[in-house]
Amino acid sequence: MNKKPNPEAIKEQMMTHLEEKYGEEFVPKSLSLSSWAYSYDRLIAYPKKGTEEDHFEVWGTKMEDGSYNISDGYFGIFIRPQYEEVLSNIVSSTYDEFKLYAEFGEGVLPDRLNKETTVDQIYRKDENFSSDTVIFVKQSKVGDQDAEASLRQIAGEMREQKLVGFVRLYVVVDDKYESIGSGPQNLSALQDEGYFVGEYKSVMVTPDMTIRQNGEEVQVDG
Questions:
Q1: For 153-180, what is each residue's pLDDT tens digit?
Q2: Chain Cα centroid distance, residue 64
Q3: What pTM does this model have?
């Protein structure tokens, strides 16, 4: 008979993996063992030096050879400040005042991504790493600029630097701009409360480095 999984032992193995990989301490929140719904054990954790908002997933999978494979999503939390800085440098060539926030979704990321990985080393065509970025720009700073054309320019520079992801741009009513944070927002609620001018505009750089807007591939310089 198979031995019943030991949750504490699994949690300890996952925590040891994280601490050895990243050289810092983490706090476990909850552990779900594999079941008919998920083929892997799933731990939610966050960095001890951060907050619970910085939580991420750790997956543990029992392999056919008896080994236990662990992967995690912490790199997305770790790299966010650097990633946002690179994106901000790109956006600043189009808008001189804005707020920007990037995230990398749920789940786990390729194991090769670690604290030694820089933003320009992230991209590999056959791997899953994509950002979801929101940009807030004050209405008076947009002026007569075509927001969709501006996004295509931003996407062109992202492609040059091999940054994959979806970008949304919200034009914010001037007197509400200061109350917009630079982190996660309840965008639907803000839309309902009249923070934004019209609907957001968007663009995407795909893993094969094409640029798509409004459901169609578009050509841009760069």
A1: 999 999 999 999 999 999 999 999 999 9
A2: 31
A3: 0.90
